[in-house]
Amino acid sequence: MNITRITPQLNNINKTYNNPSYKNISFAAAPIGEAKKAITPFKKYIAQPFIKHIFNPTVKGIEIFYTKMIKSKPFEKIITKMTESQEAKIKKNPNFESNLFAHLIVTGSTILSCFYVVKTINNKKLDEKRRRTLAINQGAVWLASTIMAYTVDGKLGKYTKKVQNDFKATALKQIENISSETDKNIKLASINRHYNGISNAKKIIAIDTIYRFIAPVVMTPIANYIGNKLQEKEEAELANNKK
Amino acid sequence: MINKISPPLINPKYNNTSAHKPYHPAFKGADAAKPVSKLAKFFAENKKAQRVLEFATDHNLLFGASFAIIITCLLRPTSIMILPSKKNKDDQKYAAAQSIGSGIIGFGLSTLIFTPFEKAAKNVKAAINKDPNALIKDGSSYLLKNKKNIANATTILDRLPDVVFAAPKGILTVALIPPILKYVFGMEKKKDKPKQDFIQPPIYYGTINFKSTTSKNKTVFDNFNGGVR
Prior knowledge:
Chain A is an all-alpha fold. Chain A has helices at residues 10-17, 32-38, 41-71, 73-92, 100-121, 128-174, 181-242. Helix content of chain B is 60%, strand content 0%.
């Protein structure tokens, strides 16, 4: 039996390694987590079917509704009127800024407050006088909260504007050195989102704190105290008159 | 006596001419002298804060619900327990649990209701910003006339679900609080004891009949009528 011994030729190996076709090959293992994610039963049997059969069709339906709403004449009228009134205000005061976002938050809270007032009026567990006093209290708390919400939002407006402007100036300085136009545009878009986010967050935090915290914790007990005192006084007067 | 009059840095006469600018190499205009607010610097440098701001812009309804959960589950219960009250400790605990329960229910309902609306609003907004004509299919669209129209329309799209669903959300929250408190927190509101309007008459033992109904003891108690002799 003939044994042929093949000795590797170093020169040839080096040539193979230096072959340009191998230079772009990279060996990267897939992260372990990803393989696990792909086969999660929750994702496969619950999340994905839910998204496919319930969530996405719902979103599609709402999109159609929104598109129809935007196209409708009443919506067009409302928006045009709003813009006209804003422009008229800007003519009077160049620093005027639309407060539509705050108005809509307040509208939501107002509807909720009205719901609680109606609920109190229809509460058959309480006698009529007590119901009336409580409903008046709730109305008074809503009024005080609304005035307070607009005042605080307005007072914070100037400071927020300064923070927004400072943020924009600092963020724009950070992207000065980016040479690629596309990257710069992406960064600019995200700066705009952050800029709007400061104002949105301020409005939500200020108004919600007043409606959800100050009103029930501070204002309602005070209003109830006043209401009870007035009712006691009224009852005492009635008793005196009877005597 | 020498009156030292310092000359004005900028002569108002020549204020607008470039030849009379004050000589100071570091001077770059009024804006450079203004200190940048710490909060703005924080927002510009902190990636997590920027994510929160993005959340407040793209998902402002859920941002509101998340903030509400901080108030209802943290601030309100703490203040209910800390602030002096005429209520007893159990009532205070119940009020705190009620606040936490309403916060959790509110957040759950908001997430469930608002997520599809926010996603749809985002898609429609993207379509409007990309090409309002494609959406409206009309060259004289009101959205094209003024940029403010787009801003107002998108703001309404953003906040509309909150206005529309405020009352139904309130009804559901009120209805769900008692079962959540009962089965999750194990708390139930103690009913006030009803006032006794009548005075219970004293029991007159003289009429008690000791006659037994069982056959075994029948003979013993057969003729026994009880009473005080």
